[in-house]
Amino acid sequence: MGFFEFLQKRSDDMVTFGLQHLMIVAIAVVASTVLGIGIGVLAFRVPRLRGAALGITGTLLTVPSFAFFVLLLPVVGLGTPPVVIALTLYGLMPIVRNTITGLTEVDPAVVESAQGMGMSAAQRLTRIQLPIAWPVILAGVRVTTVMLVGIAAIGSIVLGPGYGVLIFDGLGRVGSPVGLNMVLAGILGVVIVAIIFDGLFALVGKLTTSKGLR
Length: 214
Hints:
By secondary structure, the chain is an all-alpha fold.
């Protein structure tokens, strides 16, 4: 059976796995973004915490994904939970780093002017600093997303959803044409999901960033 014939025959599975892959990555990205921006803001406001924040999130990123997923099994069991948790933790570092960088690059004169107008620290953060830093923060979220799309495929080792199911099933049939087709289909699906997310973030960037900051 040729590869394109295989794709046609398994089109329903490709769509199902694609939706699963999109969903699990989207959930992890939202969680990583909320936590990452929160940690980044805290580290920016308290400089002595920056090293610890970057060090811990960077260390999490170095843990092999196979090991990370397996270590979570006794805590949350098989399936989607360990994959979402691991992906969320993996995604923190680029967002934390870019949040700190973006806030640091905001012109102090702009912040001082806002303070002179009577804005509180919270108002300066939400109305001035974060909006100006947003393009840099969004770049970190975009990097995180593309990275997590690939790591999510490994989640099938703990019965996680997505294209990893095809890839690992195919690897279990190494040497057969069907096995090769399954692996190639899974890889193609992962690439397509990454392209979809990247396109979405390009659109989000245009819609949420003022023209003066693009």
